[in-house]
Structure formats: C-alpha cells, structure tokens
Design goal:
Blueprint lengths: L2 E4 L2 E7 L1 H18 L6 E6 L3 H10 L5 E11 L6 E6 L9 E9 L3 H11 L5 E9 L12 E5 L5 E2 L15 E5 L4 E6 L6 H12 L2 E4 H10 L3 H12 L5 H14 L5 E5 L5 H13 L6 E6 L2 H15 L2 H4 L1 H15 L2 H6 L4 E5 L4 H12 L3
Parallel strand pairs: 3-4, 3-6, 6-7, 7-8, 11-13, 11-14, 12-13, 14-15
Antiparallel strand pairs: 1-2, 2-10, 4-5, 9-10
Helix pairs in contact: 1-2, 4-13, 5-6, 7-8, 9-11
Bound molecules: adenosine monophosphate (AMP).
Length: 370
C-alpha cells in the first residue's frame, strides 16, 4: 500500500515513477531540439534536483556539461536581511547556454534569486527547466522555458524532494494527507466472489474485512435484537433498511480504530449508504481509496449461488426466486454506485471470471496502486 510516514506526517501516492520518466524524456527532446549546434551546461539546484538531473541528462542525447549549485542563505547586514548566495559554481559561464534544472517551482522566489545571480555572469542565454510547477501559486513574471508536470498547490515529497530531510529517496511523488488508512470497497453482485477474495486480501494487505452480510448472519445466529430485525429482510433477499445497516457498519469500524484500513464487502449497497460512509470517514480524516469491482455475468452468478446454497445453508441461497430478488435489489439500488465512485475517479473494474488465484492476482494488481 502506498501511504508513507515521514516524521509526524502521512503522504499518499500522487505521481508514479513511470509518468515522471515519460515527462522527463519529452523535456529532454525539446531541450535537445532548441540546443542544436550548442553544448549547453545544465545546472541543477541542490538538493532537490539531484534525481531529476540524473534522469534528465541520461535522457539527453546530445553533448552537454552538468554541474550543481546550492543556494545558501546567510544573514546579510543590509536592510533586506536574508541574502542568497550561490555555492559551487566553478565553471566559466561567459558566453554559454546555461539551462537551470529545478525540481519544483512554486512561488518563484528561488527562481528570482537565480535570475539575479546569473544576471552578471555574462551568459549567452539562461533558460529554466522545471520538473514540477505550481501555476496556482507562481507569483513572478519570469519566463519558464520548459515545464514537466504542472501540479495543484499540494505539498509533495519523493523523487528528490523532502519533508524535513526525509523522503528524497522515494521513486514516486507523494502528497501530504491526513489519511492513515487504506479503505477499499470490494464490489460486485451477489456470488461474485467478494467474500472468498476478501479472505485472501485481508491477510495479504493487513486490512480488516467487514462483511455486512456476515455481521447480520452472526446476529441472527445469536438472536440479537439486530438479528431479529434483519432476518425478515434477509430471508426474502431484500436489503435491510439503511439506518440499521449504517449504524451497524459504523460500530464495526469503530471497534477497529487502530486498523491499517478496511475492506468493505457488501457495503455500501445504496447511494445513501455510500454518502454516509464518505461523511463518516471524512470526520476521521480518512477516505475511500477505491471501489474494486468484480465483474461477472449474471448467468454464471445464479449457478454459483445455487451451488453455494447446497453447502452454505443460507436461506437466501436456496431458491432461485430469492436469488433473482437479490439481483433485482442489486440492479435497482446498488449497481448505480459504480457511477458514484467513477465520478470520483475511484472505480476499478476487474474481470471476476477465472480461478480464485487468477482473480486474486488481478485484484492485487489494483490494490497495489491504491
Ligand atoms: P451478502 O452476504 O453480502 O450477500 O448479504 C446478504 C444479505 O444481507 C443481503 O441480501 C441483505 O439482506 C443484507 N445486507 C448485507 N449488506 C447489506 C447492506 N449494505 N445494506 C442492506 N442490506 C444488507
């Protein structure tokens, strides 16, 4: 799972290494075209740019020189207070094409310092290339010649960038999050194999599996108040009312306050359950990372459920009319949740036909990215 903790804060996956790589290759080609017939000198601004520079110059096919500088602050005696000074430039830059490689440009304060410093070095031309750029906070009228990936105003780490010294070695970019958990809705019609898969995945990813159906069955077996209430609905294959189900789900989550996250199986099943879950998680600074849906054709499902009914002894698995009613509930109330999560860019469909192992593998490929 891709949440990392650095010092006291949590960061979640934001931009993957392959996307960074692709963007750097494109930049390198553009710079190369503009530098035809010249040997540019690339100057990386330390510390953050070391990975970017290493990958950029590897992707740059022409002849070039590479150097690094560091902008050091010291207390000036003048009225401005802080003055920036360049440390580490030994090359004579007079008459050269200098291309600054920055990992990130946000407000543009550092960029302005760079322009001031290079103003009296008599370079032929000074160009700026930045891997990440925050257009929303950039306040300066200075030109940026090459931009890799524009990003919203988020605090990011990884790929050379740090949070208080840590995180530079991460291959991907991560963004600050209050989220500590990985929460996944395992979705699909009755009989899709959610329970079977959740049993494997909860171990593999160290998550708590909450199956609302199982919780109801446990209550029915123990003849609790909740069980008595739920039974009348469940036996017919109807959904249990939202208020009852939502309260029960919240209690199950709260029982496991220090979990790494949850696999929700059989919940949410209606739009109001989905909204209640979002609101409930938001109060805790958490969110749903993704809905992972097992996609299986209905005919196959009916056969699977009737077969399961031979051994499960579940009343709702026993006859075809109850099974059909569960599908009807699914089609009319639950299937729309695909759009609910699609609209948030959180829907991941997985082919649910195949051996248990094959399907686990497909699901794991998605879980790994969440
Ligand atoms: P399952 O084991 O997930 O197939 O659920 C069996 C039955 O439990 C369903 O047919 C419903 O009657 C009830 N149930 C389980 N989860 C929910 C839910 N989220 N909302 C309403 N009813 C549910």
């Amino acid at each position: 799972m891709s949440i990392v903790k650095l010092h006291d804060k949590y960061f979640k996956s934001f931009i993957k290494a392959d996307k960074i790589d692709e963007s750097i290759r494109k930049m390198a080609v553009l710079v190369e075209q503009d530098c035809e017939g010249e040997i540019p000198i690339f100057i990386g601004i330390l510390n953050g740019s070391f990975m970017f520079v290493a990958d950029f110059v590897r992707a740059y096919k022409g002849n070039c020189e590479v150097s690094f500088v560091k902008l050091a602050s010291y207390k000036g005696t003048g009225s401005t207070g802080k003055v920036k000074e360049l440390v580490g430039i030994n090359e004579n830059l007079e008459g050269r094409t200098v291309i600054i490689l920055e990992d990130i440009i946000d407000t543009g304060n550092t960029l302005e310092e760079i322009f001031n410093i290079f103003r009296n070095k008599k370079v032929k031309q000074l160009k700026i290339a930045t891997l990440f750029f925050k257009p929303d906070v950039f306040r300066k009228g200075l030109p940026i010649d090459y931009i890799g990936i524009p990003i919203p105003n988020k605090f990011i780490v990884g790929y050379g960038l740090d949070y208080d010294g840590l995180g530079r070695n991460l291959a991907d970019i991560y963004q600050l999050t209050t989220q500590k958990m990985t929460n996944i809705v395992l979705f699909g019609p009755p009989g899709a194999g959610k329970g079977t898969q959740a049993d494997v995945l909860k171990e593999k990813y160290d998550l708590i599996h909450i199956s609302t159906g199982d919780v109801f069955r446990y209550n029915i077996k123990n003849e609790t108040e909740l069980g008595v209430l739920a039974r009348s609905y469940m036996d017919k294959g109807d959904l249990v009312p939202d208020e009852v189900t939502i309260d029960m789900l919240k209690a199950e989550v709260d029982k496991n306050g220090d979990a790494n996250g949850f696999i929700f199986d059989g919940f949410p099943r209606t739009e109001s359950q989905a909204k209640a879950l979002d609101a409930f998680l938001q109060e805790k600074g958490e969110t749903i990372n993704g809905m992972v849906a097992l996609e299986v054709p209905e005919d196959l499902l009916v056969a699977r459920l009737l077969k399961r009914g031979e051994t499960s002894r579940r009343p709702d698995d026993q006859d075809e009319s109850k099974i059909r009613n569960r599908f009807n509930e699914y089609e009319t109330k639950t299937a729309i949740l695909k759009h609910y999560y699609e609209d948030q860019d959180k829907y991941y469909g997985v082919d649910g036909v195949g051996s248990i192992e094959e399907i686990t593998e497909r699901l794991s490929a998605v879980f790994d990215t969440l």
